[in-house]
Amino acid sequence: MRHWHYSIWVILVLLLWNISLLSRPKKFIFIAIGSAPENRNRRDACRRSWLSWRCPTVAYRFFTELNTANREQSVSLNVERQTLRDIEFQPFPQGRQVMQGARFLYQAAWALGHYEFDFYLKTDDDVLLCIQKLQHLLSEKRNKFFWGKYWCKQDRSYPDESFLLFSTDLLRFLVKNREFLLFDEEVSMAWNFGFLSRFLNISIFDDRTCIDSQQGYLTYFMHQPGFNFTRQISSDLSFCDKYLFSHHVESTIDMRIFKESSIIPPSHRIMIQHPRDTCGTNYSIIPCRKSRKLPSIQIRTV
Ligand SMILES: *[C@@H]1O[C@H](CO)[C@@H](O)[C@H](O)[C@H]1NC(C)=O
Ligand SMILES: *[C@@H]1O[C@H](CO)[C@@H](O)[C@H](O)[C@H]1NC(C)=O
Ligand SMILES: *[C@@H]1O[C@H](CO)[C@@H](O)[C@H](O)[C@H]1NC(C)=O
């Protein structure tokens, strides 16, 4: 009799577990945005601008720390979380350079546990993303796929941290195998992936033309302090016609950058280029250059 009781409980728990897995909302893209507790202005700028262009098939969260915020900050963070419902707290020490790899895995595991999605984008709170264009360009589910922009520096060739897009099967592989992979939780996911991606049979899209990040900005005007919209000629404002993403954008950049942009032409397709081709002989990495834990070997294309 006791056994009966026990198995009924087990079945019930399994059933509930399955129901909870089945009931995860289905999205196309999940976006994880790293944000320091004090960056309310940047979070608001994202909400006001590119996040407001979000379609129902895109979900996002800001990930920040409550434990390192001072008392005043934690009160306002809690209020922000309760009212806007787009913030998750993560248990990490202060400083954006600390435990970057572990932060990434924490956020990815959170997303996988709460949503079902086809793609996962990790980004920052000081960016501008043409979110509709991204959805359009991805258009359908892909497997074993990564999209980013590589640094073509010899022995330090890895994707920039501000835009890391994974297909969900690849993300799940990384999260599930964190114990078995050579992975340094202290250093960034970008560096870890720069190394790991050499051994994985995946398609890598090294996007040199649409991702505007610090390897050399494609749109200098956006990164100058005191950027004045009114003065800027409208061709410069149609950002999303030409580009997809920009890093280090001031929080004063607003919706006008989108309003000037037309809906992208349907002929636009992503043209996948591997960093082997874009970086040539510079596509090499020595993992221990940025990590005490990763091996001291040179990996390069021959
Ligand atoms: C790599 O992946 C492709 C496509 O998924 C597959 O056809 C191919 O057999 C794989 N190669 C190896 C060595 O596993
Ligand atoms: C921006 O430029 C316009 C046109 O040149 C000028 O009238 C305006 O005062 C400028 N705004 C700021 C904040 O500098
Ligand atoms: C390779 O690196 C060298 C030196 O850092 C640089 O001058 C060159 O432009 C790089 N090549 C490519 C294809 O980026």
From TrEMBL:
Major subcellular location class: Golgi
Listed name of the protein: Hexosyltransferase
Enzyme type, top EC level: transferase
E.C. designation(s): 2.4.1.-
Membrane spanning residue stretches: 6-23
GO biological process: glycosaminoglycan biosynthetic process; protein O-linked glycosylation
Originating species: Galdieria sulphuraria (Red alga)
Cellular localisation: Golgi apparatus membrane
Its membrane topology: Single-pass type II membrane protein
